[in-house]
Write a structure and sequence with these properties.
Elements: H1 10-46, H2 69-83, E1 88-93, E2 96-101, H3 104-111, H4 127-130, H5 139-149, H6 155-177, E3 185-186, H7 188-204, H8 217-233, H9 241-244, H10 248-284, H11 300-306, H12 317-330, H13 333-348, H14 350-364, H15 373-378, H16 380-392, E4 398-402, E5 407-409, E6 412-414, E7 419-423, H17 424-427, H18 447-450, H19 471-488, E8 489-493, E9 502-504, E10 508-510, E11 515-520
Parallel strand pairs: 2-7
Antiparallel strand pairs: 1-2, 3-11, 4-7, 5-6, 8-11, 9-10
Helix pairs in contact: 6-7, 6-19, 7-13, 8-10, 10-12, 13-16, 13-19, 14-16
Length: about 525
C-alpha cells in the first residue's frame, strides 16, 4: 500500500519542518561546542592518569557508584587500596572530571596554594541551604567573610563558650547516668543532641532544648538534608534544578529546606529585635546606659549583627542567615562524630582509657567542678587521643576543590576546571607515614613523634589558607565534653569494626550507631 501524502503544500511543509529541526540542532551544537571541546580537551589531557572502569561517555562512572553512603564509602576505600601505588587516580562523575588524592605530596600541591581555594562544583548543592557563606563562597567574598568572622574564635570568646559547654555537658551526664550498669545502648544521638544545643546557644544565643526533645523537627531536617545532598552529588541526572523537582527527593528537599530556614529566620528575627532594642536603649540614655545583672554572653549572631565589611557596610539579612546556617551545620555534626569515635576507640582500648582517667584524676582530683581553659591545657594525653581518633575517623572524610589554573601533581598534568577530592580517611592511613595505620596509638601525637612528619599527612581540619576556622572551638568542645564524661564513667564498646557500617557522607558516621556500656568509676567522686 502506498503512503498517502497531502497533495497541497506537503513537500514544502516537510522541507520547512526539516529546516527548523536542522536549525535547532545547529544552534544546540554551536552552543554546546565550547563545552564539548573543553570536555574532550580534559579527557585527552587526563588520559595518562589511571581511572575506574567502566567509564561511559557523558555519564562517566556515575552508574557505577553506589548512591547509598555506606556502599559508596566502601567503593572509595577499595579503589584507593587498589591504586595506592599511584599518586592519584580519576573518576568521571557525569561530564565532571574528579581527581582523587590520598598522598601527602599530592595533597600539598592543592592545599598549600592560595589559588586553588575555590570549593568544588559539588558544593553547589549545599547552596540552597547554606547560600554562599564561609563554607561555599570564594574569592573576595570569602576573604572578606573570613576576616570578619575570625574574631568570633578569639580566646576570650571561646572562654565564654566554655560555660555553655559545661552546662549542656552536665545535662548529657544526667542522661547517661540512666544507662549505668545496664544493657549496651547507642550513644550517638545523645552526644549529637548535646552538641546541637551547644552550637544553638553559642551561635544564636537560643537554648533549643534538643537534649530533651529527640523528636525535634529541626534535628530530623538536618540529617535528612545531609543525606539528600550527598545522594544528589553522585547523580548527574538530577543535577538540574527543574529536573530534580520532578522527583520525590527534590520535593522532600524543599520541605526540609523550609523547616531549616524557618527556624533560622525565627531566631535571627528575635535576636535582631533584641539587638535593636538594646541599641535604642543606649541611645536614649545618651551613652550612660549600664547593663545590670549578670554579664550577657556574646554569641556568634551578635557579632554578625554588628559586623561591617571592608567598606563599612553591615551584613544583609541574607548574609547573616547563610553564615548562621553554615555554623549550625558545621558546628555540631563534626564535633559529635569525633566524640562518638573517641568513646568507641577508648572502649576497645582499656590501656589508653586508663591513661586518660589517670590524667583526669591528676587535674581534677575527686571534684566534679566545671572544666576551665587552664584544665584543657593540662589534658595533653586526652588531646593526643582526640587527634589519633581524628586520624582514624576524620569527621569530614573527604573535601573538594576546583582548579583555577592548570597544574602538575607528581608529574601528571591536571587541567584548569578539574575537581579534586582529598580523601582524608585514606590519607591518614598511609602506611609509610603511619605504620600499622589501622591501630589506635595516641602516642603518635606526642611532640617527639610528630617531628619530621609531612605537614600534609594529617589534615582533619583541612590545611593551608582555607583551613577550618572553627578548629579551636571544636577541640575545646571535644576535650570539655569528653573530660566530663570520662571523669564519671568507664566505657566498654560492643561493636566490631565490620559492624559499624561506616557511611562516608558529608560527615563520617556509623550507620549502625555507637553501642557502648557504661560503668561508674570508683574515683569519680560523690554524686
Amino acid at each position: 500500500m502506498e503512503a498517502v501524502v497531502p497533495t497541497t503544500g506537503g513537500p514544502q511543509l516537510l522541507h520547512l519542518g526539516s529546516g527548523v529541526i536542522a536549525l535547532l540542532v545547529l544552534i544546540v551544537a554551536v552552543c554546546s561546542l565550547p563545552s564539548l571541546m573543553d570536555y574532550w580537551r580534559r579527557w585527552w589531557v587526563l588520559k595518562p592518569i589511571p581511572g575506574v572502569s567502566p567509564c561511559y561517555p557523558i555519564l562517566g562512572n556515575a552508574l557505577l557508584l553506589d548512591r547509598d553512603g555506606e556502599g559508596f564509602f566502601k567503593q572509595l576505600q577499595f579503589y584507593v587500596e587498589e591504586l595506592r601505588s599511584w599518586p592519584l587516580f580519576k573518576l568521571w562523575l557525569g561530564p565532571l572530571p574528579i581527581m582523587i588524592l590520598y598522598h601527602p605530596e599530592s595533597v600539598e600541591v592543592i592545599l598549600s596554594s592560595s589559588k586553588h581555594i575555590e570549593k568544588s562544583y559539588l558544593y553547589k548543592f549545599l547552596q540552597p541551604w547554606l547560600g554562599t557563606g564561609l563554607l561555599t563562597s570564594t574569592g573576595d567574598k570569602w576573604r572578606s567573610r573570613r576576616k570578619m568572622i575570625t574574631p568570633t574564635f578569639h580566646f576570650t570568646i571561646l572562654t565564654d563558650f566554655l560555660e555553655v559547654m559545661n552546662e549542656q555537658g552536665n545535662i548529657l551526664l544526667e542522661k547517661l547516668e540512666k544507662h549505668v550498669d545496664k544493657e549496651p545502648f547507642d550513644v550517638f544521638l545523645d552526644i549529637t543532641l548535646c552538641t546541637l544545643d551547644i552550637i544553638c546557644e553559642t551561635a544564636m544565643g537560643r537554648n533549643m532544648g534538643a537534649q530533651n526533645n529527640k523528636d525535634s523537627e529541626y534535628v530530623h531536617a538536618i540529617y535528612r538534608m545531609s543525606d539528600l545532598i550527598q545522594r544528589r552529588q553522585k547523580s548527574p541526572w538530577i543535577w538540574p534544578n527543574f529536573f530534580y523537582m520532578l522527583f520525590k527527593e527534590g520535593r522532600e528537599h524543599e520541605r526540609n529546606l523550609k523547616i531549616l530556614h524557618n527556624f533560622t529566620d525565627m531566631v535571627i528575627a528575635e535576636k535582631a529585635a533584641e539587638y535593636e532594642n538594646n541599641r535604642q536603649t543606649k541611645s536614649d540614655t545618651d551613652g550612660n546606659f549600664e547593663e545590670r545583672g549578670p554579664r550577657k554572653r556574646k554569641v556568634f549572631l551578635d557579632i554578625l549583627l554588628s559586623a561591617t565589611d571592608d567598606e563599612g557596610n553591615n551584613l544583609s539579612y541574607k548574609d547573616i542567615r547563610e553564615e548562621v546556617d553554615t555554623f549550625m551545620f558545621e558546628g555540631h555534626d563534626t564535633t559529635a562524630a569525633a566524640m562518638n569515635w573517641v568513646l568507641y576507640l577508648l572502649g576497645h582500648n582499656p590501656e589508653a582509657q586508663t591513661k586518660v582517667h589517670r590524667e583526669l584524676d591528676e587535674v581534677f582530683g575527686n571534684t566534679e567542678r566545671p572544666v576551665t581553659m587552664d584544665d584543657l591545657k593540662k589534658l595533653r594525653y586526652l588531646e593526643c587521643v582526640v587527634k589519633e581518633t581524628l586520624r582514624l575517623f576524620p569527621s569530614v572524610p573527604m573535601f573538594a576543590r576546583v582548579l583555577r589554573e592548570d597544574c602538575f601533581i607528581r608529574g601528571y598534568q591536571v587541567p584548569k576546571g578539574t575537581n579534586v577530592i582529598v580523601i582524608t580517611y585514606a590519607l591518614h592511613r598511609d602506611p609509610e607515614i603511619f605504620p600499622d595505620p589501622g591501630e589506635f596509638k595516641p602516642e603518635r601525637f606526642f611532640p617527639e613523634n610528630c617531628k619530621g612528619r609531612h605537614p600534609y599527612a594529617y589534615v582533619p581540619f583541612s590545611a593551608g589558607p582555607r583551613n577550618c576556622i572553627g578548629q579551636r572551638f571544636a577541640l575545646v568542645e571535644e576535650k570539655t565534653l569528653l573530660a566530663l564524661i570520662l571523669r564519671r564513667f568507664w566505657v566498654d564498646s560492643y561493636q566490631k569494626p565490620e559492624e559499624l557500617g561506616l557511611t562516608g557522607e558529608l560527615i563520617l558516621r556509623p550507620k549502625n550507631g555507637i553501642w557502648i556500656k557504661l560503668k561508674t568509676r570508683p574515683s569519680a567522686g560523690s554524686k
